[in-house]
Amino acid sequence: MLTSRxxxxxxxxxxxxxxxxxxxxxxxxxxxxxxxxAEETGLTPGFISQVERGxxxxxxSSMVAIAAxxxxxxxxxxxxxxxxxxxxxADKRQTYSLGNAGRFYEKLGPGFxxxxxxxxxxxxxxxxxxxxxxxxxEVFFHLLSGQVEYNLDGRVFIMSAGxxxxxxxxxxxxxxxxxxxxxxxxxxxxxxxxGN
Length: 196
Hints:
Largest sheet: 6 strands, antiparallel
Strand order of the largest sheet: 1-2-3-9-4-7
Oligomer: single chain
Shape: globular
Radius of gyration: 16 Å
């Protein structure tokens, strides 16, 4: 699933279908119901079902929540190598997409055992709306370019390049890319450590 540039629409569709099958297989292997995964992630059963059927593609934060509920990692679901190196040159970043929403991700740090941060750069097209999220952890979001309307627990922030947010992710949140150019977003998230 690694690409050196923005994945084509056809490739994104194929990746979404493959991801859905992989999630369904993992859930069934753990003998969990869609309802159980929904309750553990804070997502709706309908959304989980759509993801498994390749109809909807989860955002990165939703994917992390699903992976945690299924006792695995995003990298394992996406077949993204988890080779550790403290230094990541700009031209060696791993990129991947989740679905056909036109967004793609750049992995900024490979992480390490016990890591508490997950740094990512997200590229989103104009009009792209994230799903409403609510999960344990915290996030730092810095907008590098474009404009974003960010809804945090009922408060709306209109963000321009250079603006930042840092909040507890147990508060409901979602965002929409507004304006006339794609957004480029730096996200540093923390997620609960998975138990054995």
